Amino acid sequence: MKLALLLLRLLPPEISHLVALNALNFLYKLNLIGLFFPYTDSSESIEFKGLTFRNRLGIAAGLDKNGDFIDSLGALGFGFIEIGTITPLAQPGNPKPRIFRFPSQGAIVNRLGFNNKGVDYLVEKVKLRTFEGVLGINIGANKTSEGQKRIDDYVECFTKVCPFADYIAINISSPNTPNLRSFHLEENFLPLFEALSLARKKMQYANPILIKLSPDEDEKIISVILSAIQRFEFDGVITSNTTVKKEGLKQSTGNNLIGGLSGKPLFTKSNDLLKIAHSHDPCLFKIGVGGVDNKESFNSKLDLGASLVQIYTSFIYQGPQIVKKLLG
User: Fold this and answer.
1) How large a percentage of the chain has pLDDT more than 70?
2) Is the peptide bond before 97 cis (omega within 30 degrees of 0)?
3) pLDDT by residue (tens digit) across 118-147?
4) Its pTM surpasses 0.85
5) pLDDT of 251
6) For 193, phi and psi rounded to 5 degrees?
7) pLDDT digits (tens, 9 = 90+) for 245-283
């Protein structure tokens, strides 16, 4: 397995990503995942709003943007999977190169820009899933949408995915879509939250709605958002998205890269945001993500108030064995 990971790193990041996921899919279709990645789940399940998470570990949005690999990822032992971010219309994302590896630091910088095949494609893939675990769907807006159209994009995605989503994550925190993080400002997130609240009532969607937050906003702004989440009776937060601040990277070559930093250098910033959310409302449902690559960092998220934990970068670097490492 180590040799396979080393060979994958010789490929450009996006090609490596597709090769690895398609190889996993191939093993799944041959019913060989259990042979290559044996794992017996001894973790305790948890429940939230009628959903049963068989364990506390999930895969974060961004790994499977279009729902192409739900079943094969689910077969690895994750308690839940979050797919997306999805937008109403398919879009290519930002120009390449747009993923940069820093393996010695367990870090990645990406500026993908919500590249995806559109919400209708994702819905058709979700309809075919056999994965019985919890499935979250992360939604966003198209790059070209502005003003009210941007809010409409979220509502359109919400309406289309809610019949199939165990929970819906609202991504207002990607740094790679222009001005998306302006939704952290009250004058922008209030109309969005109101529109989503109305859509929830119209669709009679009873499952959780979670807001994915940026680690780069100050505590005052986050507190205002958290109060609004309570006001609109949303269910929780995901802390956090990537950071645009690169001070955590030791290589100076990465400091001027445009994009979001994930992996080990994000650990402290994401934990700081998790602490703020937990101190604001200890009862708020929280998913911790950012820098988790071993049992200690996994447990730290839980100790700080997270009910669930997601991984992304450590899965890319360590492969499927990370599941057993964190839950075993």
Assistant:
1) 97
2) yes
3) 999 999 999 999 999 999 999 999 999 999
4) yes
5) 67
6) -60, -40
7) 998 787 666 667 899 999 999 999 999 999 999 999 999
What is residue 197's predicted lDDT score, i.e. its pLDDT?
A: 98
Structure tokens at 264: 């080990």
| Complete domains list, the chain, with CATH | 2-327 (3.20.20.70)
Amino acid 253: pLDDT = 66
pLDDT at 40: 72
Q: pLDDT at residue 41 above 80?
A: no
Burial state string for 153-182 with b = 16 or more CB within 10 A and e = fewer than 16: bbbbbbebbbebbbbbbbbbbbbbbeebbe
Contact call for residues 76 and 326 (beta carbons, < 8 A): no
Both structure tokens of 71 = 């079943």
Task: Give the tokens for residue 20.
Answer: 């690895």
Point out the residues that are catalytic.
Answer: 174
Structure tokens at 36: 């290559």
pLDDT for the residue numbered 243 = 97
The 3-state secondary structure of the chain, one letter per residue: CHHHHHHHHCCCHHHHHHHHHHHHHHHHHCCCHHHHCCCCCCCCCEEECCEEECCCEEECCCCCCCCCCHHHHHCCCCCEEEEEEECCCCECCCCCCCEEEEHHHCEEEECCCCCECCHHHHHHHHHCCCCCCEEEEEECCCCCCCCHHHHHHHHHHHHHHCCCCCEEEEECCCCCCCCHHHHHCHHHHHHHHHHHHHHHHHHCCCCCEEEEECCCCCHHHHHHHHHHHHHCCCCEEEECCCECCCCCCCCHHHCCCCCEEEEHHHHHHHHHHHHHHHHHCCCCEEEEECCCCCHHHHHHHHHCCCCEEEECHHHHHHCCHHHHHHHC
